[in-house]
Design goal:
Blueprint lengths: L21 E2 L1 H11 L9 E2 L2 E2 L5 E3 L9 E2 L7 H10 L2 H9 L8 H11 L1 H6 L2 E3 L1 H10 L7 E2 L1 H4 L5 E2 L4 E2 L1 H8 L7 E2 L7 E2 L5 E2 L3 E2 H9 L5 E6 L3 E4 L14 E4 L5 E7 L3 H11 L3 H10 L8 E3 L16 E3 L7 H25 L6 E5 L6 H11 L3 E3 L5 H15 L13 E3 L6 H18 L7
The structure holds adenosine-5'-diphosphate (ADP) and 5-O-phosphono-D-xylulose.
5-O-phosphono-D-xylulose (5SP) binds next to helix 9.
Function: Catalyzes the phosphorylation of D-xylulose to D-xylulose 5-phosphate.
EC number: 2.7.1.17
Family: Belongs to the FGGY kinase family.
């Protein structure tokens, strides 16, 4: 909860919901009630920012048909391939929807449902995303008058950022028939009221929320290291990258949000930290005690399969392991590998015309000292770390304040001082080697059957 005028945080709440790649939406509603206790009834305006892409399917009575399949569920990878081939390949999809289909996107999940759970598919009359469903619940509305926003619509695979309209043919191709979809609200619209009378803004996807919360400007690229690693910037033109590396999303202000998303980020560090049996701080100390290049160890960090590049069945690979390897090397290899995957994202963004003049590092793993110290050299650009905050939630709050104000543009809130980090000028060669070794391992493994 923030002051609408200044963005100053006055109160906050937090609640967890289940882990995993599918989730009953009711668990989010319970978590929202718990986190919002003592806040929601004091609010003048509210908005929800949530994970993108998750498939929430409802029956004719607006009851949830099955647990939502989330953005990181890869079971619909075969459907992504099939739908892509059936409709003109990657170029056609990028042209129609701004996306080359990967298992994350909602259209592929609908195709999986139609193929694998015909009884559930038969019951389904409407589909929406996690933030749409929570917004509907907050308003006490029905699926018939549910709303979404441009950013979340742009992650479905059946909406066009270029035209601003649904592409019903792609939905029908995926699911086999048409479905009711939420109306795409204007970025600053009041779409309803909560039970206690607060104005409800349209809400947004998590990355668009973070972009709004950070107030990203030209030349800014955010790298968010949460469960997912996301690299994104704000643009005046929609992206349509037929290579599939950059997703052509929309943002929460009426502009566009080209974005690269990897499935493996903070949890890569969690995994190695757990294997080494150390705390976050001890892990950082280990990683920083090793030399750049981790004694020749290179980690390809696709532990949970990967979305960018598209390798849904991939696993992690450690190259260069010898009897001389140390715990320090292992910790450093985890940090360097995870950051190198994000550096691939920065390169893909640059190829779409969004070259980072500064990188803003956010998300849980941006708290890591090792990540902060190593990132500028691996990225090859100075990195700024804004004050630690929940930028997704701040973006939702800014949208709510915007809707309340009735103004043309979002409020300009000050973010606190950022910490500026520069690369290791003393050993630039070692860092070039890290990036080159990583690229070799990435490219060599692309021919492995398990990485197809
Ligand atoms: N000091 C730290 N060093 C490294 N990772 C951290 C640190 N603090 C938190 N994390 C990691 O950040 C992740 C959570 O980040 P967050 O941005 O909240 O992710 P998400 O939005 O996906 O839930 C967890 O994997 C957690 O272990
Ligand atoms: O799929 C994407 C973006 O395309 C992810 O950004 C999800 O929207 C959620 O990520 P986490 O917040 O769980 O890291």
């Amino acid at each position: 909860m923030v002051e609408a005028e200044t963005g100053e945080i006055v109160d906050s709440g937090r609640a967890s919901h289940p882990d995993g790649t599918e989730c009953p939406p009711e668990a989010w509603w319970e978590a929202l009630q718990e986190a919002g206790k003592g806040l929601l009834d004091r609010a003048e305006a509210v908005a929800v920012a949530g994970q993108q892409h998750g498939m929430v399917v409802l029956d004719a009575n607006d009851q949830v048909v099955r647990p939502a399949l989330l953005w990181n569920d890869t079971r619909s990878a075969p459907q992504a391939e099939r739908l892509t081939a059936e409709h003109g390949g990657p170029e056609a999809w990028a042209g129609d929807t701004g996306l080359v289909l990967a298992a994350s996107f909602t259209a592929t999940k609908l195709a999986w449902l139609a193929e694998n759970e015909p009884e559930n598919a038969a019951k389904t009359v409407s589909v929406m995303l996690p933030h749409d469903w929570l917004t509907m619940k907050l308003r006490g509305a029905t699926a018939a008058d549910a709303t979404t926003d441009r950013s979340d619509a742009s992650g479905t695979g059946y909406w066009s950022p270029a035209t601003g309209g649904y592409v019903r043919d792609r939905l029908v191709q995926a699911f086999g028939r048409d479905l009711a979809l939420p109306r795409v609200a204007a970025p600053n619209e009041v779409v309803g009221r909560t039970a206690s009378g607060a104005a409800v803004a349209p809400g947004t996807g998590d990355n668009a929320g973070a972009a709004l919360g950070l107030g990203l400007g030209p030349g800014d690229v955010a790298v968010s290291l949460g469960t997912s690693g996301t690299v994104f910037g704000v643009s005046d033109v929609p992206a349509a990258d037929a290579s599939g590396l950059v997703a052509g999303f929309s943002d929460a202000t009426g502009r566009f949000l080209p974005l690269v998303c990897t499935l493996n980020a903070a949890r890569v560090l969690d995994t190695f930290r757990t294997l080494l049996g150390v705390t976050h701080e001890e892990f950082d100390a280990l990683a920083l005690a090793a030399e750049p290049g981790a004694g020749g160890l290179t980690l390809l960090p696709y532990l949970d399969g990967e979305r960018t590049p598209k390798r849904p069945n991939a696993t992690g690979v450690i190259n260069g392991l010898t009897t001389g390897a140390t715990r320090e090397d292992l910790a450093r290899a985890a940090v360097e590998g995870m950051l190198s995957a994000q550096a691939d994202g920065l390169a893909a963004m640059a190829a779409q015309g969004l070259t980072a003049k500064r990188v803003l590092l956010i998300g849980g793993a941006s708290a890591s000292e090792a990540v902060r110290r190593i990132a500028p050299s691996v990225f090859g650009v100075d990195v700024e770390v804004p004050p630690s905050a929940e930028y997704v939630a701040l973006g939702a709050a800014k949208q709510a304040a915007w809707a309340l104000s009735g103004a043309q543009t979002p409020p300009q809130w000050k973010t606190g001082d950022t910490a500026r980090l520069t690369g290791d000028a003393a050993t630039p060669g070692s860092f070039r080697n890290i990036v080159e070794q990583y690229a070799s391992l990435r490219d060599e493994t692309s021919s492995w059957a398990a990485h197809q």
